[in-house]
Amino acid sequence: STGVETKEFQTEIRQLLDIVIHSLYTEREIFLRELISNAADAMEKLRYTQLTGPEVKDKDLTLEIHIDTDDTTHTLTITDTGIGMTKEELVENIGTIAHSGSKEFIKHLSAKGDQKDLNLIGQFGVGFYSAFMVADKVTLYTRSYQMESQSFVWESDGVGSYTITEGEDLSRGTKMVLHLKEDAYDFAKEETVQRVIKQYSSFVPYPIIVNGQKVNTVDALWIKNKNEITDEEYNEFYKFIANAHDEPLFRLHFSSDAPININTLLFVPKENLEQFGFGRTEPGVNLYCKKVLIQEKSPIVLPEWLRFLRGVMDSEELPLNISRETMQDSALITKLNKVVTSRFLKFLDGQATSEPEKYKEFWEKFNFFIKEGAANDFTHRKELVKLLQFESSNTLPGESVSLANYIGRMKEDQTAIYYVNGPTREGIESGPYLEVFRDKGYEVIYTYAAIDDYIFGAIGEYEGKKLISADQSDLDLGNEQKDRSELALPEEEIKDLTEWIKEVLGSKVTEVRESKRLVDSPAVVLSPYGTNSMQRMMQLMNKDS
Length: 545
Ligand code: ADP
Ligand code: MG
Prior knowledge:
alpha+beta, nine-stranded mixed sheet, chaperone, ATP-binding
């Protein structure tokens, strides 16, 4: 009863295979990720069946993925103890019924010219066929979990047809033998296979054993319960995904089911490399669906100003076959992005109170990102502004105040938040702008960065209090009635003096007038726009362009 049946591949699959076999690829090692992900899926299904359904064959078999390399026969063998396939399933799943994504994928590939990026193959639901990027013959042995199942051998060179033969008495699961093409012999080397697994499949939730040795020590931590994870495990995981050697400054691990299913593990690194002039930091959060990697270092799952974060986002609600193109404008991604961003900002806000020292360190290193967000991200601006910290006339050097702190200690008659821009504390305090505020006992925020002024200008007010630049010429602090000193000049002389000064300065000034704000200094230069901030804003723009 070992008759060989030969069957034709369905048309679209034949077209797909034709491209897979005959093109040059940039990242063909991803075939291993696809086959490991299929093995893991098969075991996931078995686990589910075992939990919910009837008795399964070989119920004591451990759920493991074995990968064996043979450098002399140039073969790579991937074995799983998953759900396996019946003959009908073999025919349907591999060869006959093209996943709805395959047509789309063929179109995608055809549009790409000679160098084809096959990385997306799994996302189109046709990952199995990536085996033919490296193999000129694939032999697959499989036995279904069903008690009455038989063993089958599927074999093909990927050209036109495949055969199915009844096999020897196998144990449950699937074994795939890849007979490597000559230019792919490298994949029969243990080091190569280990490297590829490290890169793509470290977080597969089943042991991966290469030539008898377990290689994936790192678990899918983000799916686990927080109280089952040690600090060491978190740190190891961080070092792995962030390619870091030190420990993270903060970590946030949270799961939620509403408004969207999400498992997230985020880390703030110890250092901000942008601060050290390393150039722009690339985003570092990977997107998963049920532990299967959908997009590495995703540029869209979080806003740009969170590019310093490292970690993982995993949502069951993402369709596995989502392509990057459709992901870009997926409402689901937008929602994920918003939920996680808000949650992270809430976390930071909490840390500011619960761990002020650590938050201070965070603020010193990463404040620029938060400010960038506050300046550009309208969706989260309110939450971001809440996190801003500033030195002020009431703080010691190096200490800071948030806008909420500031409001909390405003003078009774004070109605606005005042700030003044200058390069340093000394610069600001030796200038004339603070005099009137000192006199009234009002706290003044010191903004050392131009972006601070930009943000204040953009938001205009906070919690109903206007944000007013102290170097504004039309500043009205209700000082008009302040007693004039006996030494003050009579009105007439003031008029003569200001006219004379205007004459001397000519077009360098637009107006000279008596000041109501000065206490000790004889004169102050003011601008309708706020001189300092304007200048610094221009500097900032020039620097950026
Ligand atoms: P996808 O994994 O997105 O469904 P693939 O092309 O990778 O697409 O695989 C096609 C189908 O082949 C799978 O859905 C599954 O039914 C079957 N399959 C592939 N590999 C295995 C395996 N190791 N064990 C059981 N079934 C498998
Ligand atoms: Mg697959």
